[in-house]
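Hi there,

I know you've been waiting on this one. I reran it after we fixed the sequence typo, so this is the corrected version. Both the input and the resulting structure follow.
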Amino acid sequence: MEVLARIMEEKSKNPLFKFHWRCEKTKIVNLCFADDLMIFSKGDTNTVRLIMEGLNEFSVLSGLTPNPSKSNIYFSGCSEELRASILHIATFSEGMLPVKYLGVPLITTKLKATDCKCLVDRITKRISSWTNKLLSYAGRAHLIQTILFSMQVYWSSLFILPKKVIKEIESLLRAFLWSGTDIRKHSAKIAWDKVCVPRLQGHAQDLQSYLQ
């Protein structure tokens, strides 16, 4: 991929090449993550043509080519006519924004509650997929700690989650702990803040004995 980066760097020196406005200062054209490649540019036919030339040159050198069925172009602020021209040059399908990568949305604005709907839906779906309704409280607590909460932690490592979303997820986890897969929201046996207390603190031992 270093070869591709150098090819794209050379293409970006062409007077016809126009950077994406957020990448102009840093002169970024492409980013690579494992087997994934992201290319950024202004919505311009000459620029896209130079990018495709660079990809073809890399293909000749390495034997690697973009998979059309797994490649998409994302537009912002481009007219329909310009989109059609660029799609004709690139021969890739048009994707829809916002796009997800590794399960999270790629956005430049502050994360909103609506952006997290897929996270809440995933947690709800995971709870509903567990068909065993005879799990003990300790078993449910273990699933919450190791699986459900880890979903929230993954998103929290990348974004600052809105308070509304955190409360909604806590409500789901609390309902699953006390009612199982039915997710019925009723009065809990123990306050949620005590459930979340570390084992070495406060009422952790009493809680652990109750859950068992």
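Quick highlight: The chain has two domains: 2-97, 105-211.

Best,
R. S.
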